[in-house]
């Protein structure tokens, strides 16, 4: 019956096609638009925050997002956003969360993204962010995780 939670057509009931729509959204065109928005509005923290959150959602739905970001020069934009918004805890928290999500694990994509983030100075920025925002719980939590994941050596190369 409509109105009963779990019944199709009832608000709050997940639709089977929602995951597919998110995956469709995670296309190269959408990623390009998000990176362009970040690039055009470097110091508009609410745009940066929302864009970073969206990149995280899209990456979790489709890992190709990481490869597209890397291929289109998105790492440089993300590194610049991270550096320019160093003193904005909300942006740093989401940026460090994104770094952690994208760089955890030993998959080839994670390793490529990790080298990309390290290459644009994200490890140093995460370290500074951890120090600057140590009293901001969410930011300190994700900055510590980003710092740890970027600073960790690959198991493949450990002795």
Overview of the molecule:
With 159 residues, this protein is mostly helical. It is 69% helix and 0% strand. The radius of gyration is 17 Å and the shape is globular. The termini are far apart.
| Mean pLDDT metric | 86
How do the SSEs run, as a string of H and E?
Answer: HHHHHHHHH
> Structural class of the secondary elements?
mainly alpha
The CA-CA distance between the termini, in Å, is 62 Å
Helix count equals: 9
How is the biggest beta sheet arranged? none
Residues in helix, %: 55-70%
How many DSSP-defined strands? Answer: 0
User: Which regions are unreliable across 5 or more consecutive residues at pLDDT < 50?
Assistant: 4-8
Shape: globular
| CA-atom Rg in angstroms | 17 Å
- Strand fraction equals under 5%
């Amino acid at each position: 019956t409509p109105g009963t939670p779990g019944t199709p057509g009832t608000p709050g009931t997940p639709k089977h096609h929602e995951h597919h729509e998110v995956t469709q959204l995670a296309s190269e065109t959408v990623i390009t638009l998000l990176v362009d928005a970040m690039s055009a509005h470097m110091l508009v923290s609410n745009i940066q925050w929302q864009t970073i959150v969206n990149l995280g959602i899209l990456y979790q739905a489709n890992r190709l997002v990481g490869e597209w970001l890397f291929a289109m020069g998105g790492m440089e934009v993300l590194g610049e956003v991270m550096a320019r918004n160093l003193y904005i805890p909300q942006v740093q928290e989401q940026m460090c969360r994104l770094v952690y999500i994208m760089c955890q694990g030993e998959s080839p994509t994670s390793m490529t993204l990790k080298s990309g983030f390290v290459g644009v100075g994200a490890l140093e920025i995460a370290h500074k962010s951890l120090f600057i925002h140590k009293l901001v719980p969410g930011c300190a939590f994700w900055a510590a995780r980003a710092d740890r994941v970027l600073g960790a050596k690959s198991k493949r190369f450990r002795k």
